[in-house]
Automatic annotation (TrEMBL):
<feature type="transmembrane region" description="Helical">
    <location>
        <begin position="409"/>
        <end position="428"/>
    </location>
</feature>
<keyword id="KW-1133">Transmembrane helix</keyword>
<feature type="transmembrane region" description="Helical">
    <location>
        <begin position="12"/>
        <end position="32"/>
    </location>
</feature>
<keyword id="KW-0812">Transmembrane</keyword>
<dbReference type="GO" id="GO:0005886">
    <property type="term" value="C:plasma membrane"/>
</dbReference>
<dbReference type="InterPro" id="IPR001898">
    <property type="entry name" value="SLC13A/DASS"/>
</dbReference>
<feature type="transmembrane region" description="Helical">
    <location>
        <begin position="87"/>
        <end position="106"/>
    </location>
</feature>
<protein>
    <submittedName>
        <fullName>Solute carrier family 13 (Sodium-dependent dicarboxylate transporter), member 2/3/5</fullName>
    </submittedName>
</protein>
<feature type="transmembrane region" description="Helical">
    <location>
        <begin position="177"/>
        <end position="197"/>
    </location>
</feature>
<feature type="transmembrane region" description="Helical">
    <location>
        <begin position="222"/>
        <end position="242"/>
    </location>
</feature>
<feature type="transmembrane region" description="Helical">
    <location>
        <begin position="291"/>
        <end position="309"/>
    </location>
</feature>
<feature type="transmembrane region" description="Helical">
    <location>
        <begin position="357"/>
        <end position="375"/>
    </location>
</feature>
<dbReference type="Pfam" id="PF00939">
    <property type="entry name" value="Na_sulph_symp"/>
</dbReference>
<dbReference type="GO" id="GO:0005315">
    <property type="term" value="F:phosphate transmembrane transporter activity"/>
</dbReference>
<keyword id="KW-0472">Membrane</keyword>
<feature type="transmembrane region" description="Helical">
    <location>
        <begin position="382"/>
        <end position="403"/>
    </location>
</feature>
<feature type="transmembrane region" description="Helical">
    <location>
        <begin position="129"/>
        <end position="156"/>
    </location>
</feature>
Length: 460
């Protein structure tokens, strides 16, 4: 049976590859629209093909990203030096540092300490546990890459469900926790460039393409207020939609676990000091974020500190995601450099130029959230939207940051289907169904848009 399934899957993948190749030649050989260069047409066609391959995963994301980067040279939309520079920008170093920082949090035991203390503070009250879990994970996700945080929470949550005999797909409390926590992580992850891997990709891409620097401070002055407002709103929505079926959980004695944790260990204190200095550097120095982040990661490996070792480094890096970010960024920059992004902005978005800025922001945010249904891979969504939005904003009379950042924040709102890794981790537990997530995701996407527009109304 498994052999037949493998053969069927292989045949399906081969068909998709052939269709994708044919599609590229069809799109690149259509009459070139006025205002678009042949190189621009080819770069758009290649991006469409890359999206098909990434979404269907007919080739693993990492190798596929390398392949599409090389193809830009073959089809002559970029020279080899341009391709190399576009594929490995500073963004890559920041993404690598995010993975390392997340691993350091786990390896020191600090992450586990936070979760255990959180559970103890809930005093076995379901709603209180949900509120504390969402607030704390939202707060931590401001500065820690989302996936590591989601993965850290699930095992402890499952233990609670099992001790309380909560059945998969039936327990509302389990649903509220496993849906509420990744939603809170996504909200907090939008708050700073360090909160999610695609954030800095969006920030760097918009800055390079528009020629208008968008700083760490630009991001957080709107992102953090948004996260602070949106997190409690999300909690009340989750509680209303998935009302816990129990008023008190079976007594979970956390005292023994707290006692086992003991006092803060040397490595935990070292991590907190290094990380605090890193955050401070982002606010008060001109050192580029990726540079300071890599320096901080280097300190983790120093003798007498040794928060991480070679094994920890190997465990930390998800090269598939890194290569995906590199590949999607390279394709996005090529679309910009060939003039295709400008053409898209002028031809597709020109009817929206006269629209009220706040309505335009609302439309852009909602469009971005619902684009996840077509393009569930966040780095790819950054590559599609950010170049076009960055070019379009000045033509609509809106500051680049005022339109780019709401879109960049909304790229984190992948809570319509459990396809984003942050949700995939909790969905894999089997405690909620594919239909459960939209029950919270659809209304929260509307609330997300309203809150974002209110914040931007104060700015504009």
């Amino acid at each position: 049976m498994s052999v037949k399934k493998t053969e069927s899957s292989s045949t399906r993948n081969a068909i998709i590859v052939i269709i994708t190749i044919v599609l590229y030649f069809v799109l690149s050989n259509l009459p070139t629209p006025q205002g678009l260069t042949i190189e621009g047409q080819k770069s758009i066609a290649l991006m469409i093909c890359a999206l098909i391959v990434w979404i269907t995963e007919v080739i693993p994301m990492g190798p596929a990203s390398l392949l599409f980067a090389v193809l830009m040279v073959i089809i002559k939309t970029a020279t080899p030096p341009q391709m190399a520079a576009n594929f490995m920008p500073l963004t890559t170093f920041f993404c690598i540092s995010c993975f390392i920082i997340g691993q350091a949090l786990l390896d020191t035991g600090l992450g586990n300490r936070i979760v255990v203390l959180l559970l103890k503070a809930s005093k076995n009250r379901p709603k209180r546990m949900l509120l504390l879990s969402m607030c704390v994970t939202s707060l931590i996700s401001l500065v820690i890459a989302n996936l590591a945080l989601s993965a850290m929470m699930v095992p402890l949550m499952l233990k609670i469900f099992q001790e309380n005999n909560m059945k998969p797909k039936e327990s509302n409390f389990a649903k509220s926790m496993l849906i509420g926590i990744p939603i809170a992580i996504s909200i907090g992850g939008a708050g700073t460039p360090a909160g999610a891997l695609p954030n800095y990709q969006a920030l760097a891409l918009a800055s390079e393409i528009s020629g208008t620097p968008i700083t760490f401070l630009d991001w957080v002055k709107w992102g953090i207020p948004f996260a602070v407002i949106m997190t409690p709103i999300a909690y009340f929505a989750i509680v209303a939609i998935f009302k816990p079926e129990v008023k008190e959980l079976v007594s979970i004695n956390m005292d023994a676990q707290v006692k086992e944790l003991g006092k803060l260990k040397y490595k935990e204190i070292s991590f907190m000091v290094i990380f605090a200095l890193l955050i401070l550097s982002w606010f008060v120095t001109d050192i580029p974020m990726p540079v300071s982040a890599i320096i901080a990661c280097g300190i983790f490996f120093l003798p007498k500190i040794e928060i991480l070792n070679a094994e920890g480094f190997k465990k930390a890096i998800n090269w598939n995601i890194i290569m995906l970010i590199c590949g999607s960024t390279a394709l996005a920059l090529t679309i910009f450099q060939t003039g295709a992004a400008k053409w898209l902005a002028e031809s597709v978005l020109s009817p929206f130029k006269e629209m009220n800025p706040l309505i335009l922001i609302a439309v852009a945010v909602l469009l971005t959230i619902y684009m996840h249904l077509l393009v569930p891979v966040n780095p790819s969504l950054v590559a599609i939207l950010i170049p076009v939005i960055a070019i379009f904003a000045p033509t609509a009379g809106i500051p680049v940051a005022a339109l780019v950042l709401p879109v960049a924040y909304a790229i984190n709102a992948a809570f319509l289907l459990p396809l984003d890794p942050v949700f995939a981790v909790t969905y894999a537990s089997g405690y909620y169904t594919m239909k459960d997530l939209p029950k919270a995701g659809v209304p929260l996407s509307i609330v997300w848009t309203i809150v974002m527009v209110i914040i931007m109304a104060i700015v504009l």
